[in-house]
Amino acid sequence: MHSMTSEAFQRITMHAAVLEEDGFGPKVYLLEDGSFLKLFRRKRFFSSEALRPYARRFAENATVLRGLLIPVPEIKGVYRLADPPRTAVHYVGLPGNTMRTSMREADEAGRERLVRRFGQLLAHLHDAGIYFRSLHLGNVIVLPNEELGLIDFADMQTYRKSLSISKRKRNLRHVQRYEEDRGWIFETYLSTLQESYRGATNTPEFQMTL
């Protein structure tokens, strides 16, 4: 992790667009060259963020996912900022739209195709021991070739073996938090999701239900 001075931070963000912010300030910048700078704030004094900053987790998790042949953003650098007191990751985004946007724009056949790919991706993650708490259709990118990639995975956990059935069920509950996503994935196209997941997983006995 490299240090970034307040002067360097001001210089790189001077003409950047703020894409996301909260009450503590900007969280994601779109830089002039089209790349992104994502900032992470330490939320508590005694936190795992002090030992393993979220920016570093983001970069390390990108390496894990890339090793599984899952498209992810290209990491350009990981930084510790002096002012504002943040850690940051600089990356090049994936081309395409979020799966949520693609589902809104697709026809019936296109939606079924996307859900089938999502079921296969979910099985691949679970079988590889990946527990992605923030998994929802806004964090899945549909590339121009309709392959699915992932973004915003700083809180991902990696286990040495495939996820247990209880962890798989818990992960599915996270996916269902968004009403629009739940309507498509777990209601309208549930049978497509179940079929594609069972065909791709090494744990076919897992029953994917609401």
TrEMBL record:
Record Gene3D superfamilies: Transferase(Phosphotransferase) domain 1
Stored InterPro entries: Aminoglycoside_PTrfase, Kinase-like_dom_sf
Pfam family, one: APH
Residue ranges of domain Aminoglycoside phosphotransferase in the record: 22-128
Domain of life where this protein originates: Bacteria
Protein's name in the database: Aminoglycoside phosphotransferase domain-containing protein
UniProt organism field: Stutzerimonas stutzeri (Pseudomonas stutzeri)
